Amino acid sequence: MVRSAKPPEERRRSGSGRASSPEEETRRREAIRKAALLRKKQVRVVITVRYRLKNRPEINHGGGWNRKRGITYSDHTYRTRISAGDFNSPDRVKRLLDERHPGRMHYQITQLEFAERVR
Question: What is the pTM of this model?
């Protein structure tokens, strides 16, 4: 059996997911409650969007035809949560994706639909 050199009150607590003091536990539970309430106001969506990488130059000399023409575009499908009010605003959805993925510049949404909950 491995014994700790520190007294029990100074040991690192792990595994239980609880805070070390009752006040911190109350704050932790309040933060969890706020996050759960925020999730209830959001909807699950599937977004297929086209983006351009920000760190690539517009025209790249050398490489294949696509790179010579400056085509550094790609598609990606995201499964995420957004607020219900943002669902009808493609510009707001693009802005949210740009904030969440700063290395990409999203420019065209090809699919935006509600996601079914799978359990």
Answer: 0.61
